Amino acid sequence: MTGNREVITGNDFKRMIAGAYSAFLLEYENINALNADSLMDEKAGTHILRTIGASAMSLRDLQADSIGGVSKRVGSAAVLGAHGNAGVLISQILRGIAKGLAGKYDASSSVFGKSFQYGILYAQRAVNDEVERPLIITAKAVAKGAYNAVRANLPIAEILTEAIKVGGIALSQAEKKNGFVIMTANYRE
């Protein structure tokens, strides 16, 4: 069996961050509509949007660079631009992903999938309370979905699709467990 030879470059990562920012521009109000007690952050969507916005803005004038350099810039900008509890968690996920991609010019699907693991570890360290937040539960599921898809030697696009699918399932389960309803049906298949 030959390995999957696809790679993600710094430019690809820049486009991912820009895409994430665009997606949050459309959905942040739906995230804000979640039960604030469950998220412990009344404006989680706005805080995530601003945090990812800080990351996206840091890449505006950046020319082609290594994925390690781009991810480091994204992680640093997210930490400096983090807003609220949800923003801090997202910034730590991005910081952890940067740690996993450090020193890489480009990343194979395997390396990129493993970098999600670092992101989850960094986010978990940022939370002192014993109750797992829906954001971390979902992020763990996304990382596990990516890991399983990498092990199945899927192309990068399918790895990301599988990660999002598994994350959506975990979010649905967290919603039922915590008794809140999300208004973003678009994330489910």
Give structural notes.
With 189 residues, the chain is mainly α. Helix content is 70%, strand content 2%. It has helices at residues 10-32, 36-39, 44-58, 67-80, 84-101, 109-126, 134-151, 156-178, and strands at residues 7-8, 107-108. The chain is globular and about 40 Å long. It starts with 6 loop residues before the first strand and ends in an 11-residue tail after the last helix.
Proportion of residues in β-strands: under 5%
Helix proportion range: over 70%
Rg over alpha carbons:
16 Å
Low-confidence stretches: 180-189
Order of strands in the sheet with the most strands?
1-2
Cα-to-Cα separation, first versus last residue = 31 Å
**Assembly state (oligomeric):** single chain
Instruction: Summarize model confidence as the mean pLDDT.
Output: 80
Shape: globular
Number of beta strands: 2
Class from secondary-structure proportions: mainly alpha
Task: Compute the number of helices.
Answer: 8
Order of helices and strands: EHHHHHEHHH
Largest sheet: 2 strands, antiparallel
Task: Describe this structure in a few short sentences.
The protein has helices at residues 10-32, 36-39, 44-58, 67-80, 84-101, 109-126, 134-151, 156-178, and strands at residues 7-8, 107-108.
What descriptive keywords fit this protein?
globular; 8 helices; 2 strands; two-stranded antiparallel sheet; 189 residues; 70% helix; 2% strand; mainly alpha; disordered C terminus; single chain
